[in-house]
Amino acid sequence: MQTKVLKINSADIDNICIKEAAKLIQKGELVAFPTETVYGLGADALRPEAANKIYAAKGRPSDNPLIVHIARFEELVSIAKEVPKQAKLLADAFWPGPLTMIVWKNEKVPYETTGGMETVAVRMPNHPVALHLIEESGCLIAAPSANTSGKPSPTEAAHVALDMDGRIPMILDGGPVGIGIESTIIDLTERVPMILRPGYITREMLEEVLGEEVCIDPGIIAADSERKPKAPGMKYKHYAPKADLILVEGQTDVVVEAINRLVSEKQAAGQKVGIIATDETMERYNSDCTMSIGARSDEDAIARHLYKILREFDDLDIEVIYSESFATPRIGQAIMNRLLKAAGHQVLTV
Fold it and tell me: Under DSSP, is residue 235 helix (H, G, I), strand (E, B) or coil?
């Protein structure tokens, strides 16, 4: 299969490109497209065979649910068995935007899309290309991240092409994404709303809108459980570079000293080593390759650069990566969730 890449200007969308992509979606084919979080790999959410094509292209386990992308709140109503009152409050506050809600599904949604679950994950993306594609296709679009399963999520079309060239018919290249980590997922089927995946929309923001407690799944910053996941991407190792990634946490000076010592040991053993640092610590390290993820004061930049840096280490054939910890105040939990899963929960406290 030849993969066609169409460049599209988000500020001045070419309807010819959108129509071509929409026809593929209508035929049950796959199209990768930009959202504000990461690039998605889209197909008609209500066609079982289309969902199966997503799993095949990604090499994704079929019990890992897909997120259904919509362009209007009424489309959530059309596929939900019931719509909790919290859903309307959250939609009014955060949609379109990086928030996914889990509700009970109705018979319209095939189990292939929900990973066999009775619930469905739904969000309305805040990106003109994504919204135009949904509207033009007339379909609800199931779309996980457009990468090979387990690899870092794609934040540029070139990342998608690296993983999906020859596997899917089309990539819409809308340039780099804005946020760089996947949406927050909140489960509205529990007695107390529960965050199943942290993201740009924080617990405090959700509680302020809902006027009630929101709890956090204890598995978010813990080793993967054997429990069947309700949330997309929460059961299996994700976001992982080719290299062995180890997180090092502790007081800054001690972390720098420990990482430099570990790097020297690995280099002495003939291994090629990389370091994920910050602007503040970049010059204090000695390695084959040190990359700054941004300034600690700029959480948004850290999130935006994370997956791109992991992919750049892949390009350099780095064998081991040591990373500082990023317990930043607002979206630090989301950043650390991604890093912990990428590292397979390898953490060294110093």
Answer: coil
Letter string b/e over residues 178-211, b meaning 16 or more CB atoms within 10 A of that residue's CB: bbbbbbbbbbbbeeebbbbbbbbbbbebbeebbe
Q: What is the pTM of this model?
A: 0.92
| DSSP type of residue 71 | S
Strand 39-44, strand 141-142: pairing: antiparallel
Q: How far is CA 12 from CA 17, 18, 225, in A?
A: 12, 12, 45
CA 186, CA 97: separation in Å to the nearest integer? Answer: 13
Tell me the per-residue pLDDT of 165-223, one tens digit each, with 9 for 90 and over. Answer: 999 999 999 999 999 999 999 999 999 999 999 999 999 999 999 999 999 988 775 55
Token output for 214 = 């929101």
CB 183 within 8 A of CB 67: yes
Separation of alpha carbons 187 and 39, rounded Å: 23
Q: 332-342 and 299-315 are packed helices; what angle lies between their axes, rounded to 10 degrees? A: 20
Sole residue written with tokens 């859903």: 87
Residues in the chain: 350
Q: Which of 204, 233, 228 is nearest to 216 (CA)?
A: 204
Mean residue pLDDT across the chain: 93
Residue pair 332/326 in contact by the 8 Å Cβ criterion: yes
What's the distance, CA 74 to chain centroid?
A: 25
Give residue-wise pLDDT tens across range 100-111: 999 999 999 999
Residue 137 CA from chain centroid, whole number:
23
